[in-house]
Specification:
Largest sheet: 2 strands, antiparallel
Strand content: under 5%
Order of helices and strands: HHHHHHEHHHHHHEHHHH
Number of strands: 2
Distance between the termini: 54 Å
Strand order of the largest sheet: 1-2
CATH topology: ABC transporter involved in vitamin B12 uptake, BtuC
């Protein structure tokens, strides 16, 4: 019988932080969109497309530009930039279709999630003549950053040091968004648009601009999440690389009540559940298929709790 300390080790916690990063980014993207009243369920598709754009961008800058050949790490960073730009364009497309043609974002998101997998597989076959997985030896992973001062601290040093720049940027971004949403005029505009559209219009808030900003921002964060998967955590692209992380991000946003701080910790919790599931496969005799479904069962439980709490609040409001 394994003790809890045999299962939850420092490596498991470090793995949880890595696995949580794309979920946290998706959660922050979903939270901002939800606050602005534009439900973006297409984040999973965004991540898949951006993961492909990231690794292709790194490959192109590494092999077809002089500066890319001289600086392989620079090519990887440019891959991240490419993924973010593609994500921004996807967010812009969603905003344009919603604002100009009144397209239902839920329908559009479902279409995006379905097409993302097939589009990336088609491009992978057409360009690289591969079907399931593609990689190239010239592509290098985002380098890990060693925090030398923190590394000297027992336990904490091993837990907080040694991640790539996207991980650390995600932590900083969550703090910045907490400040923006609670302490700035733009944060209040986002909240106002999401809570009462007509009232926001009546006080002169540019609703269209706020929604465009939220969807484009969600695309940029999806780009970071996608590039983390393809060139930050690994150096390859596989079919459906998002693997439901966008949906987990939406669930984490709801669990965190669409607040950046709450969404961050909810995403971290999902990352821990994923890392724990991987660990349990190695140290227990529980059937793998049961362990693999644990994060998704957890998602259903959390969504049920959030839904129940929301119904209770509505009932209380109706009474008064």
């Amino acid at each position: 019988m394994n003790s809890i300390f045999d299962i939850i080790t420092l490596n498991v916690l470090a793995s949880a932080i890595r696995l949580a990063t794309p979920v946290i980014l998706a959660a922050l993207a979903a939270a901002i969109c939800n606050k602005a009243g534009v439900l973006n369920l297409g984040i999973d598709g965004f991540i898949t497309i951006c993961a492909f754009a990231g690794i292709v961008g790194a490959y192109i800058f590494r092999n077809f530009t002089p500066i890319g050949i001289a600086h392989p790490v620079f090519a990887t960073y440019m891959g991240v930039v490419c993924a973010m730009l593609v994500g921004a364009l996807l967010g812009l497309l969603f905003a344009f279709l919603k604002d100009s043609y009144g397209v239902d974002l839920t329908v559009l998101s479902i279409a995006m999630n379905m097409l993302a997998v097939e589009i990336t597989v088609y491009l992978m076959r057409t360009i690289f003549h591969q079907s399931g997985t593609w990689s190239d030896p010239s592509i290098v992973q985002l380098p890990s950053i060693r925090l030398t001062l923190i590394e000297k601290i027992p336990v904490l040093g091993g837990l907080l040091s040694g991640y790539n720049i996207i991980v650390y940027f995600t932590w900083i971004l969550a703090l910045v968004l907490v400040f923006v949403m609670h302490k700035t005029k733009y944060g209040r505009y986002i909240t106002a648009v999401g809570e009462n559209l007509e009232a926001a219009k009546s006080v002169g808030i540019n609703v269209s601009k706020v929604r465009y900003g939220a969807l484009i921002f969600s695309g940029i964060l999806s780009g970071l999440a996608g590039s983390f998967l393809s060139i930050g955590h690994l150096t390859l692209f596989t079919r459906d690389m998002a693997s439901g992380r966008g949906w987990l991000g939406n669930a984490a946003a709801l669990f965190g009540f669409n607040n950046p701080g709450g969404s961050f910790f909810a995403g971290l919790f999902f990352g821990f559940a994923d890392a724990l599931a991987l660990r349990l496969q190695n140290v227990t005799k529980i059937p793998p298929y049961i362990i693999q479904v644990m994060p998704y069962v957890l998602t259903l439980v959390i969504l049920s709790i959030v839904s129940y709490q929301s119904i209770k609040k509505k009932r209380k409001r109706s009474i008064y």
